[in-house]
Amino acid sequence: MREAYEFYEANNAELALKFMMAVRQTVDAIEKAPLRYPVVLEASRKARVAKFPFAVYYVTDGDSIIIACIHDRRDKKIVLERLRTLGPAPQ
């Protein structure tokens, strides 16, 4: 996410702030209704970031744990790798 912010900031500081606000709104939505978003990779769920080609991947077992915020076209292996470091999938 830092790379994305820095990219947007280098090109347009206002767009960088809008990106961060959109990510924050996505995380807020996850916190309010963690089961709202579909399971897409093993036990992780995916919430798209509005107006940007990014998604927030997370797991939940009562508490949500953010795994990654990555570009939709980026290889999803990073999500799977981070899932494995968390241990067994929540039920």
Q: State the secondary-structure class.
A: alpha+beta
Class in CATH?
Alpha Beta
Radius of gyration from CA coordinates: 13 Å
* SSE order: HHEEEEH
Give the overall shape, derived from the CA principal axes. globular
- With helices defined by DSSP (H or I, 4 residues minimum), what is the helix count? 3
Number of strands: 4
What percentage of the residues does DSSP assign to strands (E)? 25-35%
Largest sheet: 4 strands, antiparallel
**Integer average pLDDT:** 88
How is the CATH topology named? YaeB-like fold
**Helix content bin:** 40-55%
Low-confidence stretches: none
Which strand order spans the largest sheet, edge to edge or round the barrel?
1-2-3-4
Please state the second-level CATH architecture: 2-Layer Sandwich
First and last CA, distance: 28 Å
How many domains in all?
1
In short:
The chain has helices at residues 2-11, 13-32, 77-86; strands spanning 39-41, 44-48, 54-60, 64-71. The protein is α+β, with helices and mostly antiparallel strands and 91 residues long.
Overview of the structural elements:
The chain has 91 residues and is of the alpha+beta class. A hairpin with a 5-residue loop joins strand 2 and strand 3. Helix 1 packs antiparallel against helix 2. The longest helix is centred in the first third of the chain and has 20 residues.
List the helices and strands and how they pair.
Blueprint: H1 2-11, H2 13-32, E1 39-41, E2 44-48, E3 54-60, E4 64-71, H3 77-86
Antiparallel strand pairs: 1-2, 2-3, 3-4
Helix pairs in contact: 1-2
